[in-house]
Amino acid sequence: MPGSNTYSQLPQEQEQQEQQTRTVQQPVAQSAPQPVAQPQANAPVAQTNAATNSPSNYGELYTYLQNAMNEARPETPEERKKRERNEKWNGIISGISDAVRSVSNLYFTTQQAPNMYDAKNSMSAKAQERFDKAKAERQAKADKFLNYALTLGKLKDADDAKAYQRDKDAAAAARDERDFNFRVEMAQKEQDNADRNFKRQQERDDKDDAFRNRQFEEGIRQFNVQSSREAHRLAMEGKRLAMQQAQGQMSFNLGPGNGNVVLSSAQLNAQTVSRIFRTLPQKVRDKVHGEPIYTQDFQGHKVISGYGDPSTEAMLIAIGANVQDSRETQDAIREVAGKKVEKRKIAGF
Length: 349
Known about the structure:
This protein is mainly alpha-helical. 66% of the residues lie in helices and 6% in strands. It contains nine helices and four strands, in the order H-H-H-H-H-E-E-H-H-E-E-H-H. The strands form two sheets. A two-stranded antiparallel sheet has the order 1-2. A two-stranded antiparallel ribbon has the order 3-4. Helix 2 packs antiparallel against helix 4 and helix 3 (77-110) packs antiparallel against helix 4. Residues 1-52 have low confidence and may be disordered.
């Protein structure tokens, strides 16, 4: 029958139309992105994995994310327009093919042929299935792209934070080094100044010591003694008092059972020393005298008519050498030191 031959050719025509539709849809199917292999969830991203091609260090991780973003990058506006145009034409072709098949099926069913129409197997349904699958893949790529972008952003933020902290630490280390060098320099300057001051002070002290020694030596020459033993005793007392005067105080041994009395240099001013000196016995005071006073006799010769007051150093030597033999001198020293003395008249006080 002619009708039966026509009906037998229908599957071939439908197959050819589907082949044409697949040929038109082929660029879209090929352009569909392939899923990017992801590292395992339970393994660090930076570990090497041959199956997932995951990176093994920080530099590889950065490159890996860049490449993964490029692979998952969303379609451009030009690509979207081309895809929508292809989908539109595929939809039109699928609709026309389904219409032809529906009319053919309707015709042959009127000729007692079985109904071969199935909406699920229509070209429009298959095209819509492909469209939905491609849309899901695009959405998955967009999600991957977003995740990669966020991860890469976090890495860049971590890089920036590390660089900032590194620069901050370097600046702090440089500042600490400058401060340390400055303190060392200032300490060295202070030490140099202290050394210079110490040297100058030592020179002044040496000059003062030499001056005091000369003063006490001059005081010893003011004594009128005959024996060398007495001269030696006075010389030793002068050296002792000179050494103690350099320390700012002098001690006087009042004799057995009477102890020592220490007086400061401020307490032993010239007036106080003179008052204590006048408490010594007259025979002791007669042995020490100041510079001679010269006059001329009736023949015009220069003669000594008397002596001036002894120097303070000479009076101190006389006090230190003879205080143990004079109760009045001991009491005078105690009174200058602020110690309690017996109420009796002290010569010169």
